[in-house]
């Protein structure tokens, strides 16, 4: 099964609130979500990398939330819809931001060669997590905890005030869980070194 097919299967099986079909139509037919990379040179820096990353984060989040300690000691339990929403849609802010191009790389023979790459050019510079919340809320209504999870999914690696990140994690444990899943997918499943 292709990543696109897996994304669509997870989305359609779990996300049913009002506006879900309009959002999916946007992703499929009015955006580059399924062909965009996840980054310019690091994880998922290839056509379709954004979809791959989103599905990886979904699986990592489900695994994290299924841990006995997380359920029994921390009391974290979320609906399948919430898990699918925050994981699959946390990076919709990247839609329409990557442009194809080339860059020169010096080979071991000392010669320069043009290699394909992506350049980031954000037409709506609204931030990262907050932009994803803005886009998703334009189609369907997120709960406060879902919005906070998406907003703070970069955790302490983002450019935000670290005190605010900690407060968000304490008040909205789903934000911590999503940030953990995002880091696991990025640094373990999708580890790619920059040239």
Radius of gyration: 17 Å
State the order of secondary-structure elements, H for helix, E for strand: HHHHHEEHHHH
Q: What is the mean pLDDT? A: 94
Shape: globular
Largest sheet: 2 strands, antiparallel
- Uncertain regions: pLDDT < 50 for 5+ in a row? none
Head-to-tail CA distance between termini: 30 Å
Estimate the helix proportion, in percent: 40-55%
Q: What percentage of the residues does DSSP assign to strands (E)?
A: 5-15%
| Helix-strand category | mainly alpha
Number of helices: 9
The strand line-up of the biggest sheet is 1-2
Number of strands: 2
Summarize the structure.
The longest helix is centred in the first third of the chain and has 18 residues, at 49-66. The protein is built from 9 helices and 2 strands, in the order H-H-H-H-H-E-E-H-H-H-H. With 195 residues, the protein is mainly α.
Describe what you observe in this structure.
This protein is mostly helical. The chain has helices at residues 3-14, 20-29, 49-66, 68-73, 80-89, 129-137, 144-151, 162-171, 173-189, and strands at residues 98-106, 112-120. Helix 1 (3-14) packs antiparallel against helix 5, helix 7 (144-151) runs parallel beside helix 9 and helix 8 packs across helix 9. The longest helix has 18 residues, at 49-66. The two termini are 30 Å apart. The model has no long low-confidence stretch (mean pLDDT 94).
Task: Kindly list the characteristics that best describe this protein.
single chain, 195 residues, mainly alpha, two-stranded antiparallel sheet, 9 helices, 2 strands
């Amino acid at each position: 099964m292709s990543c696109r097919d897996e994304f669509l299967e997870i989305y359609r099986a779990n996300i049913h609130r009002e506006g879900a079909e309009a959002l999916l139509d946007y992703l499929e037919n009015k955006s580059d979500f399924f062909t965009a990379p996840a980054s310019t040179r690091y994880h998922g820096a290839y056509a379709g990398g954004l979809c791959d990353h989103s599905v990886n984060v979904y699986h990592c989040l489900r695994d994290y939330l299924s841990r006995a300690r997380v359920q029994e000691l921390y009391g974290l339990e979320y609906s399948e819809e919430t898990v699918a929403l925050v994981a699959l849609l946390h990076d919709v802010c990247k839609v329409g931001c990557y442009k194809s191009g080339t860059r020169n790389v010096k080979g071991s023979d000392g010669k320069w060669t043009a290699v394909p790459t992506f350049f980031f050019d954000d037409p709506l510079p609204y931030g990262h997590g907050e932009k994803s919340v803005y886009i998703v809320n334009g189609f369907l209504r997120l709960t406060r905890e879902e919005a906070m999870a998406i907003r703070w999914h970069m955790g302490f690696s983002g450019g935000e005030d670290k005190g605010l990140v900690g407060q968000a994690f304490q008040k909205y444990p789903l934000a911590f869980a999503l940030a953990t899943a995002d880091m696991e997918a990025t640094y373990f499943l999708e580890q790619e070194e920059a040239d």
